[in-house]
Queue: 2 jobs
Job 1
Amino acid sequence: MVARFPWQGTAVAGVTPLAPGEPGLLRLRLADFPSLSGAFGSVRLGFTNLNVGGPLRPFIVSKDGDAIFVVSAVCTHASCVIPAFSSTKTSTCSCHGSRFSANGSVLRGPATEPLTEYEATLEESGLLTIVIPEFTGFQVAVSQVMSASVNRVGVTFTGVRGVEYEIRSRTHLADPGTVRSFAVVEAGAANQTIHRGTGAEVTLFVDRDGGSGFLTVAAKARTV
């Protein structure tokens, strides 16, 4: 829990550098969303608050029986943000009245184009993986800190402006992981857990714990 918002999922980049332009992957556990536990449910997610501009717009995850739909929450008429789908399996844009179905198709204008649909895969474990092209894969480099006073590694990456990140240790990618505290200078106190992206490269310093697994940089998605 950070401030007033419970974190609902993570978009993960592992320590292996990603190819430029490779889309980001958002991994969510459906069990974390009570609204998705029934016959039909829908939740709107985002990486930043709705009043914060940026390249990552909110999107909607809906479950209709065994079917999963993930679509952009941006209306194709005038780019207003639409709400999650109601129990009628529809969402109406408050700006001009366009109405969409849970799979993104247009039910009523003035919009003429369907909502952008995102590729999603649901595993038997309940883990949902969503491909988000707008969130291009970011490179993460891990380096050993060569200092007699600390036993740390430096984690270097460039965060998207306004998006909040954690460093987590994981045994595998499906593992939600353990949040690791970090320092912002090599020998400083490791007393921070959230880094807000600025668009510039940053190095965060994490104590070695001697355990197995690997470190990941996780961008935070939440209900908006």
Job 2
Amino acid sequence: MNREIQLKSEIAFLDGKFKAGSISSGFKLYDIYENGVFDKNSDGEMVCTIDKNHKIASEYLIGCRNLLNKKNTRIHISRLTLSDFRRFKTLKVKLDKHLTVIIGDNGAGKTTIVDGITKSLSWLSANILKKGGIGLRVTDYDVNIDSVSFAEVTLRASVNESSHYSISLFKTAKGAKEAKKK
């Protein structure tokens, strides 16, 4: 199938999902039109397959914001995994759709769990608000003192059941022999 036809088919598919409420599809369309699509031709040269169109990109970005600002918009965090993050060697938490309560003694890690969620969601929100937005980073302070590799926070979330996200943040430990591959 011709690449241009394939892209037009993908755009039509994403547009249908966006109209059905998928924020992630709308954001992908925003990205396509904001940056254009470039491919190598048969001679190995980069050619523009889909032109940049800031007006269309802006319409999709505004549409994403409108979906997020709708009354009854719900964000559900379904899973959180902390690896060598602060006091936790490994922690896997499955969060209930309706209510999750975190209880523990002082120093048990309640704030660490909330900070992991906060850092992850900051990247999602920063990229919806602004192209190339930057959220809160995992810092040297967040890396478990006994870690020999890296600290990682992984979060799975959905918005209104139609948009699903997986976010992974990491920081290589000081003195680690090898950095985590993206």
